[in-house]
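Forwarding these from the shared drive since the link keeps breaking.
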Amino acid sequence: MNTRQICFRRGVRDGLPIALGYFAVAFTLGVAAKNAGFSAVQAMVESLTNNASAGEYAVFSLVSAGAGYLEVAVMTLVANARYLLMSCALSQKLAPETSLLHRMLLAFDVTDEIFGISIAYPGRLEPWYTYGAVSVALPGWGLGTWFGVIVGSVLPLRLVSALSVGLYGMFLAVIIPPAKKDRVVLALVLISFAASFLASRWSLLAGVPSGVKTILLTVVIALTAAVLFPVREGEAA
């Protein structure tokens, strides 16, 4: 078995919990899609090409309200803008000789969870590891949306809402291990939580979309951490 196969299988293994979480969370997307007039197949295709909960909710909500194509495109861009920062950070984990094709394929499905396990990959990121994770996570998202359109509307609302909590628990499972190993990471995680909460309550930012708030906080906190706690090239994980 060559290195690519080993990395791909490892990615599949690490991506399975993400796929299960995506499948559960996508139920709520399926309900929103049905309310917007999407068929099960249309909703699934939308999820397979736009794997982002906030972005998809924006799409379904705007379509339901009768918004135009331009408005939908702009709102989706704003809601998903944080992934631009994640892609830039992830590119630093790749070997310099990584081809443009690999970089573009990796950028296609940069989600919070896929980013989390990819950035935590020891040493330089092997693209085939992320491909393995995406190969199971993305279908889980698409099928969850499809299933949500089919049966989601007949499930109790409390049950549908409860399913979405699983994704937050899964994301905590991604960030807690490195936080336990490094006090700097732990401090930054806690500061990020506090800053995010304060930003959501600050009246001056009341009209700022959540995606923009995330970008601003990410840039400020990451830049401060990079200046105060720089990581030497030889120490990069």
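-- next protein --
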Amino acid sequence: MKAGVVHAKNDIRYEEIQKPEVEPGKVLIKVKYTGICGSDIPRVNGDACHYFPNVLGHEFSGTIEEIGEGVTSLKPGDRVAGVPLVPCMKCADCQKGNYSLCRHYSFIGSREFGSFAEYVVVPEKNAVKFDDEVSFEKGAFFEPATVALHGLRRVEYRGGKSVAILGGGTIGLMTMQWAKIFGAKQVVVFDILDERLELAKRLGADYGINSGREDFMERVKELTDGRGFDYVYETAGNTITMKLAFRLAANKAQVCFIGTPTRDLSFSVEEWENMNRKEFMLTGSWMSYSAPFPGDEWELAAHYFKTGELRFDESFIYKKIPLSKIDEAFEMFKTPGLVKGKILIDSEG
């Protein structure tokens, strides 16, 4: 089969490799689309790849081509989204259903060959079936959608409250929609790009606030009667938005950092004192799994994509690029600000 193989830093090649064989308890997926995740970029353009040669890709959709012995929940022709985490199922965290925290895990598309290829083999439970009403493009967005839902529920989320979403990227807009689906009274998205804020409103946000403007906190006071927000979700992993979360939190708020930071972060005494004075709860979120594996995050993504309540906008996708030109896709990320949205690699293109 053909695959995009990473051989070294800045060296990803479209070439022929051995097609994987189905083993008992596993399925062979004919890949349709794979999204390039932010974590893939330093593995190709940087030094983060675990080993060479390697086949990355973990946000994918496709159809079941073949099933291994003992597989009962799937059949050839089923449309599926890929679940990349392969937990050990034996450690204390796995025994509690905290699969995201497994210390002995494998991961499809980083620690074992992934979906930047025509075919990929995964365990039966790592393929989530979705209906014909759900497009393969949406199927490739299951993984980020579930990351958002897992983050939403890392706090004691309840409807009828006010919610702030910091960052209008894919994860942020998915988190915003989950907050609305589960009954938020008011959801406000913060970003520095007006086009992202307009998209947020099209997808259901009540308000969008440009946090790059000097007077934006006045708007916050108007919308919250000076209280701040009951729930604050930081989705950008940016120093500015992580600090902003502390300012936007109401007294007794619950704050979750979903975004992955890329730089060291320090707080002034005044900034940190927000947490003391407001007595808000702060937590983080990692990946997207719960018991029974892979978790109802994945089941609910399939359901709400089907009903249309979890909305999908074509602007989520920046470009669709054939697998044969995967090297060109990663070159685009070397130009800051060029890629606005998700690049999907088409394994059939």
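The CA atoms of residues 190 and 209 lie 5 Å apart. The mean pLDDT is 97.

- D.
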